[in-house]
Amino acid sequence: MRKKFLLPLGLLLTQLSGCWQTALYQEDLIGPYRLFAIDLSEQMSICYAADDQDTCNERISETVFSVGWNERFLVAKQHPSNDKSVTNYFILDMSTDKKNLNSSASVMGPFSESEYKKQSLAMALPEFSRTMDDLK
Q1: Is 86:79 a contact under the CB 8 Å cutoff?
Q2: Would the pLDDT of 91 be above 60?
Q3: pLDDT of residue 16
Q4: Segments making up each domain of the chain, as ranges
């Protein structure tokens, strides 16, 4: 009888363990913002962590490979869907962002490198201070 009980219990626990899967990568940046990849490093994005810390609302989609920030702005370099032949630049204005806000209200971009350089000079944007070389 005991063996008949242990097999279904083992299978149930195996199935349930998948429900509490943690992210492959999480790194807190500033305030509620974090780098986040659920299954693969190529899924690296920037998200806004909710109060419960289990929910993360995406702000800049994959594949983010370099970031920087100051008291107002968070900047990111991204290869869209890990296409390394394309580099997009994004500016997130943290002063206008809220937890449940649509990201289009606080995120500017994508910009080309030349467009970003113009914005950087005009807005005194921060330098890129964190780069993931394996995603670059």
Answers
A1: yes
A2: yes
A3: 44
A4: 22-131
pLDDT at 3: 53
Token digits for 44? 């690296």
What was the pLDDT predicted at 52? Answer: 67
d(CA 9, CA 1): 13
Distance CA 39, CA 45 (A): 12
Per-residue confidence band for 33, with pLDDT thresholds at 50, 70 and 90: very high
Stated pTM of the model = 0.82
* 108: helix, strand or coil: strand
Gap between the Cα atoms of 56 and 25, Å rounded: 13
Is 73 within 8 Å of 126 (Cβ atoms)? yes
SS (H, E, C) 66-83: EEEECCCEEEEEECHHHC
- The DSSP symbol for 53 reads S
Q: Which of 71, 75, 77, 65 is nearest to 131 (CA)?
A: 65
Please list, in sequence order, all residues whose beta carbon lies within 8 angstroms of the beta carbon of residue 88, skipping any fewer than 6 positions away: 77, 78, 79, 80, 109, 110, 111, 112
Buried b (16+ CB within 10 A) or exposed e, 77-115: bbbeebeeeebbbbbbebeebeeeeebeebbbbbbeeee
